[in-house]
Amino acid sequence: MSRRDEIIDVALRLFAEQGYQATTITQIEAAAGLSPGAGGLYRHIGSKRELLVAAFDRVIDSRRAAQQAPGIAEPADPRTAISIAGRAFLGYVAADRDLYRLVLRGGADLPVDLTDLYQRLFQPGFDEVAGWLTQLAAGRRDFDAAAVAAVALSSLCYFAISEFTYGCPPGDIAQERFLAAWTDGLLAQLGARP
């Protein structure tokens, strides 16, 4: 990991904890092990806003790389495939926890175009899952893959966000139990036997 990446990580963590507006360059420098107020941060990045944009871009690039990486063979059993997909999505959210916390904490106050961020960061995932669900639905014309994908991914997001925001999952349901019910719900939508 480069020094620039370390600084971006520190900045994103502080932005998530304190809010973007409340976090100062001096605080970021101190937390990153640079001399506070000496301007050392500017050798690695041009501004506080650039730190924020770099953090978002890094997550977007990481997601694109993961989508393009050769995957393992997809299980023939839809239940297993859906369960693996749910766990993978929760893993993405967990890996990007500070980004989610930041957007939830003060999205409207961030100096970025949130619509553009959504289109670049989140919409591709919804589109990919909708395409995958269409394949699993085996050509059913009455199947609304985009709506089912939106409901499925939104429920996973809320589960993860509830855990790191409130310290407990929704309904105090353990992750394994939630994923089992989530998988059964998707199988039912697909017309498969849960």
Automatic annotation (TrEMBL):
Keywords: DNA-binding. PROSITE patterns: HTH_TETR_2. Residues 26-45 bind DNA. InterPro entries: Homeodomain-like_sf (IPR009057), HTH-type_TetR-like_transc_reg (IPR050109), HTH_TetR (IPR001647). One of its GO terms (molecular function) is transcription cis-regulatory region binding. Pfam families: TetR_N. Residues 1-63 form the HTH tetR-type domain. This is TetR/AcrR family transcriptional regulator.
